[in-house]
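User: Can you predict the 3D structure for this chain?
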Amino acid sequence: MISNISISTSVKICAVMIAVTLSMMVAPVRAQSPVGVAAVVNDDPISVIDLVERIKLVAVSSNIEMTPQRSNEMAPQILQQLINEKLQLQEAERRGIEVTDEDIARGKSMIEQNAGLPDGMLDRYLSQRQIASGTIENQIRPQVAWQKVLGSMRGEVQISEAEIDDTLERIISNQNKPRNRVQEIFLPVDNPQDSTRVYQTAQEIRDALNTGADFAGLARQFSASASAANGGDLGWLYAGEMSADLQQAVNQLQPGDVSAPVQTVRGYYIVKLLDRRVGDTDAVTDTRLDLYQLFVPISGDMPQDQIDAKIAVLQNTRETANSCDAMANVAVDLGSDLSGKMEGISPDALSGQIRQAVTNLDEGTPSNIIQVDGGALMVMICNITEESNLPSRQDIENRLRLERLDILARRKLRELRRQAFIDIRI
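Assistant: Here is the predicted structure, written as structure tokens:
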């Protein structure tokens, strides 16, 4: 049962939040005060101070200038998030799931890593920005609890080999198309009547992004996708790994661009293109070389006959050596300390002369003699390894399972909301 929830409620929230947020920004919050209760979720209260502190946390973590107007615009969505977190905690408690101090510490450590803060500095960082003690724990606790709830539901999600085959086949068929590294913020529409409100929230988030807000910070605060924990980062995606409507939006972006809200059957997405790679060679394979380098030192004051003798050794080796072992035997005879094998080298990491020398060179064939500072050398490719960058079957299964768990989680949260008594009081 849900009471007092309507669009007009946000007007009341706005009026209260202008006064409360401004006063709370000026002085640190000292304790639960007579400010009042913002909402009650199955007898568990959410205070106005809880709401104000979360607004301040959103501002700090997302690099937003939280003006009274923006505070009013975001307050309804943030209050809904706090309500969802209460429901998630209550469901975890019902299932006997606990969030330990170690869980909270790990959550803080992850935030510090993402923010580039030294270990153990998060609390001081927030205190310096007048965020009340316990605010960050109050956000981490339901996140961890809900992840544990979802973990207990993993058995309800089955991914077939045929589904993995279909996905892999679709990805392979799109190898010649660009790969995109994408961030997302997902705002679900659980009830068609909420579509306009959610769209307005998506627009407000995009406006904040356009004025310098941090995408990862907003994703962690607002996104309902599992990627929120990673700041919305989906990693590198091949064509075929995103839904058609999102792929179309991403295709129209340049690296660094943020899309307008994209409506899907599930809700609204905001996507940011971080990078794009095009072409089979760069996008699909990673080439590594095992090389043997045979080096002979030549100094500027060395007599010409000695120089000729050393070059002759290289020339003879080039004509007779047919393996890296044969090159190594010559190096032993020469006593060449700078000769030796190099393993797992990317062609891009080689110097220009050597990279050019090994281009189109067959395994077991010595290169031309290369003149370098301090001497001359020859290289031979001992082995070429080409590893596909395509996702493994396990990667695909994990992604599909995560998508299904996302859907299952939203369905479960809708069910909890329908069954709950939620009383919004501001």
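The longest strand covers residues 375-388. The two ends are 18 Å apart (CA to CA).
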